[in-house]
């Protein structure tokens, strides 16, 4: 009887472990910038392989904290970590996708891409120097539009944000005097409305006439918001699009020898959209089991996920960068 009971307990243990393994999944959290495409990738991956990847868009700041504390299997961040910080926290990092940060607005009577914003106008709006929509610095390139004498409401992020980090890095490039350093949470001088995540900022733009804010391109599409045509580094007017984002990505300088650390915002190029950003994945070096599952997911993504990325308005990484990422995984012994 004891022998039968022993084997029965062994069988129950095996079945329980098998059931738990079958239902197990990888979890990540962090950047909201790429969340729409990550979630669609995960759904397609589960359909193709049966393996689950869960991702929660909690913001880049939370993604970094969560992976440092090993609260999740991977972290997402639009703010790249310098190699010395990765070493300190025993992390590895690689890029996944490139997207645009757009200046979405809600001005009655002014349609998508009709508003043109020069570098001077953008800096004036977000520094608070331009307080009304009919300010001369905005009107200078918009004489065909009936810009109202209405107070500008600037929609910004309330949370620790990689989108804010990349956008304020751009502001620093176009107007260093007003924007001395890039930051995840910025001390805005303009009159602002705060919202959590890209979704919160999108809602604030949608629900407040005469608002403008910075959001990821897929949120502009999802919420059917209007976005400005902006002046790029070469002085040309560029509307946000996948092709303009890809044109800018050609000038990225991401390499495995420094864990792909790079800021690609404000690129060179006649046809480049000027406000682009890369999103990154952070992995704990010691967790080879879960890392293997995460890497298997991104291998699948790099081979099968481009159409999904395009659907949401993201540009795929250059093929040379993808090949370097695959070599990086092996060289870091993450599997």
CATH architecture label name of the domain at 101-249: 3-Layer(aba) Sandwich
Helix content: 40-55%
Q: At the third CATH level, what is the topology name of the domain at 101-249?
A: D-Maltodextrin-Binding Protein, domain 2
Radius of gyration using CA atoms only: 22 Å
> What is the CATH C level class of the domain at 101-249, in words?
Alpha Beta
Strand content: 15-25%
Can you give the mean pLDDT? 90
Topology of this protein?
Blueprint: H1 2-23, E1 26-30, H2 35-49, E2 53-57, H3 60-68, E3 74-77, H4 83-88, E4 91-106, E5 116-117, H5 119-127, H6 136-139, E6 153-157, H7 162-174, E7 192-195, H8 197-207, E8 211-216, H9 217-222, E9 226-227, E10 229-231, E11 237-238, H10 242-249, E12 276-284, H11 288-304, H12 306-311, H13 319-331
Characterize the structure shown.
It is a single chain. The chain has a domain of about 150 residues: 3-Layer(aba) Sandwich (D-Maltodextrin-Binding Protein, domain 2). The two termini are about 45 Å apart. The protein has about 325 residues and is α/β, with parallel strands linked by helices. It has 13 helices and 12 strands. The N terminus is likely disordered. Strands 1, 2, 3, 4, 6, 7, 8, 9 and 12 form a 9-stranded mixed beta sheet that branches.
